[in-house]
């Protein structure tokens, strides 16, 4: 199996907490992005001290209460399934802070991290305030929820977005990359994809490749899997009959999303 794909851990811990995914510099080729997905039983509490990391806490499903210092955001989260296609609530917490997530119902929570040295205010990223956009044409259409886009100054490094791609469509397409620190032409952003499919027995295909093909992996991605993109182009194809959801986390030395299309396939935009 490719080292870029991660299956769910489903690692049950004490006090109603299950660790579903954990990606870090210690177990991947990533240096700017780390990620955890946790399932919380109703009433359970997850706590963490961030040190030199910032974190975007995404209420993927269920309702949670997030506390950091004097800030408390009660019963946030808007959906029981991502395929309700409603934006959800998130909370940004800066470095050197301690936060607590309490599950008001059963909940799946994404913890999206990147290095940070400059403290920013803790902030509720309310679902009703998120930018929602439709991208692409023909069989290249997708629905995007912008949780932390690069035009939102709430974070130092993190970029977080949700993407829904319908049956028979392509996403992150035409193939594009953002692995060169060469602004204004291209930014260096590592990326992770957390995937779900509807119905859940579905799958998608994701390819990660570089121009010189020193990296060239095509993966069958099932419900709950993660794909790590340290560099290269990274398109996603969705088979007929299924809908794709993924949660993207990006970070790099500059908080700018400036991508470069694969010139062999850019013609489809013309």
From TrEMBL:
Biological processes annotated in GO: inositol catabolic process
Pathway(s) where this gene product acts: Polyol metabolism; myo-inositol degradation into acetyl-CoA; acetyl-CoA from myo-inositol: step 4/7
Pfam families attached to this UniProt entry: KduI (PF04962)
GO molecular function: 5-deoxy-D-glucuronate isomerase activity; glucuronate isomerase activity
Catalytic activity line of the entry: 5-deoxy-D-glucuronate = 5-dehydro-2-deoxy-D-gluconate
Protein keywords: Isomerase
Keyword Isomerase: yes
Enzyme Commission number(s) of this protein: 5.3.1.30
Highest taxon of the lineage: Bacteria
Task of the protein: Involved in the isomerization of 5-deoxy-glucuronate (5DG) to 5-dehydro-2-deoxy-D-gluconate (DKG or 2-deoxy-5-keto-D-gluconate).
Family in the record: Belongs to the isomerase IolB family.
Protein's recorded name: 5-deoxy-glucuronate isomerase
Organism: Sinobaca qinghaiensis
